[in-house]
Amino acid sequence: MLGDNITEINKLYSNYFDYITMLAVVEHIEKDSLKNYFDLIYGLLKPKGRLIITTPCKISKPIINFLYKSLIVRHKNYFNFEELDKLLKGKFILKEYHVFAFGFNQLFYYIKNNIY
Q1: At 20, phi and psi to the nearest 5?
Q2: Could you tell me if 90 and 40 are in contact, meaning their C-beta atoms sit under 8 angstroms apart?
Q3: Long-range Cβ pairs for the range 2-9 (8 Å, 24+)
Q4: What pLDDT was estimated at residue 7?
């Protein structure tokens, strides 16, 4: 399933997964499309399913752009905590949040909100 089209997976695996990870993924998706991705992920997760996301912090953008010029084109977004959390509010409940790698990366750990 790694690398499969998420819209096709959703048709086959509704309420199927205990965990979904998006490790260094959300920064590569257009901001306008992220809500749709999170809606699909919500449908894929079992009740109380977990979503784990890592993404560079917004403050890391100038450093990443300086050190890794090839990522300038590939990274479409940089988020701070509030921006990404706002996209997931309601459908997911934040259980943990950590900043790591000298403050340049962040980890979000959510549980599916079955009340939504």
Answers
A1: -130, 130
A2: no
A3: 6/37, 6/40, 6/41, 6/44, 7/40, 9/44
A4: 61
pLDDT tens string 7-48:
666 667 889 999 999 999 999 999 899 999 999 999 999 999
Pairing relation of β-strands 105-112 and 92-100? antiparallel
Distant-in-sequence, close-in-space partners of 36: CB < 8 Å, separation ≥ 6:
none
* Domains detected in the chain: 15-112 (3.40.50.150)
**Cα–Cα distance measured from residue 89 to residue 92, given in angstroms and rounded to the nearest whole number:** 6
* Per-residue DSSP letter, 57: B
Distance between CA atoms of residues 113 and 100, nearest Å: 26
Decide: helix, strand or coil at residue 65: helix
CA separation for the pair 82, 116 (Å, rounded): 20
Looking up tokens 């000298």 gives: 102
